[in-house]
């Protein structure tokens, strides 16, 4: 019986991944020394509030130095685990914070009849926004393709899956976003690689509800599948 238990624990550790101590310590130290504004704490929903704090951290030299010694997959995982720390273990709140934290559009340009309407998506300064996006993992699917935008697709779909539960609802939402982007956003397209990242995010969120996730946290990069 003990042997079976040891085998189970070994397998569990192999398919799950806990955050590295270096990442925990660096994020913990930063967030403890940079408390959030009381006004934001009162007025902004928890997941978005955590996402604001995550955005601040991702633009720092402390994070850049830590990330420079990690693989792209490890960087992706650590960003989520940092959000999970901010969310006090609330996984739904953490995936929302991560999706918000990794968003790499400062504005979208909506094509209206006769004019273009810019919609701002961040309150960051241009310099802060550029530094944060530069620090994000760029090649989570391919060394040859800049896939920084796939992070937001992955974690946004994970959040919607946590919120609504039904895969078809999340897939439909992702498809509608792609259709709307192609039809209304200047330079937008209906990108099948975005949909692929959405699907991987759904699978990640599904695993968060499994028995494995009750003991050790699940690393999101484990759910990245070949994206043609």
Written description of the protein model:
This protein has 228 residues and is mostly helical. 62% of the residues lie in helices and 5% in strands. The protein contains eleven helices and two strands, in the order H-H-H-H-H-H-H-E-E-H-H-H-H. The protein has helices at 2-15, 21-33, 38-43, 46-58, 61-68, 72-86, 91-101, 126-135, 148-164, 167-184, 192-208, and strands at residues 107-112, 115-120. It has a two-stranded antiparallel ribbon. Strand 1 and strand 2 form a beta hairpin. Helix 7 packs antiparallel against helix 9. The protein is globular. The protein starts with a helix and ends in a 20-residue tail after the last helix. 34% of the residues are buried.
Quick overview of this protein structure:
This protein has 228 residues and is mainly alpha-helical. Helices cover 62% and strands 5% of the residues. The protein is built from eleven helices and two strands, in the order αααααααββαααα.
Which series of helices and strands comes N to C?
Answer: HHHHHHHEEHHHH
How far is the first residue's CA from the last residue's CA? 45 Å
Largest sheet: 2 strands, antiparallel
Helix-strand makeup class = mainly alpha
Widest sheet: strand order?
Answer: 1-2
How many separate helices? 11
Radius of gyration, in Å, reads 18 Å
Average pLDDT, all residues: 84
Proportion of β residues? 5-15%
């Amino acid at each position: 019986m003990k042997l079976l238990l040891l085998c189970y624990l070994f397998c569990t550790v192999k398919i799950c991944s806990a955050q590295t101590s270096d990442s925990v310590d660096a994020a913990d130290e930063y967030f403890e020394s940079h408390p959030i504004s009381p006004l934001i704490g009162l007025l902004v929903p928890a997941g978005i509030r955590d996402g604001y704090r995550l955005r601040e951290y991702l633009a720092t030299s402390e994070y850049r130095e830590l990330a420079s010694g990690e693989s792209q997959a490890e960087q992706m995982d650590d960003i989520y685990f940092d959000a999970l720390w901010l969310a006090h273990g609330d996984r739904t709140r953490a995936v929302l914070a991560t999706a918000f934290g990794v968003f790499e559009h400062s504005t979208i340009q909506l094509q209206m009849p006769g004019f273009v309407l810019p919609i701002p998506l961040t309150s960051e300064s241009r310099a802060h926004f550029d530094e944060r996006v530069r620090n994000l993992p760029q090649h989570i699917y391919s060394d040859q393709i800049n896939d920084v935008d796939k992070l937001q697709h992955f974690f946004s779909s994970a959040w919607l899956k946590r919120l609504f539960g039904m895969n078809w609802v999340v897939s439909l939402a992702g498809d509608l976003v792609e259709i709307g982007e192609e039809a209304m956003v200047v330079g937008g397209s209906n990108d099948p690689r975005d949909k692929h990242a959405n699907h991987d995010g759904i699978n990640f969120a599904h695993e968060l509800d499994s028995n494995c996730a009750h003991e050790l946290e699940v690393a999101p990069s484990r759910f990245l599948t070949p994206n043609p």
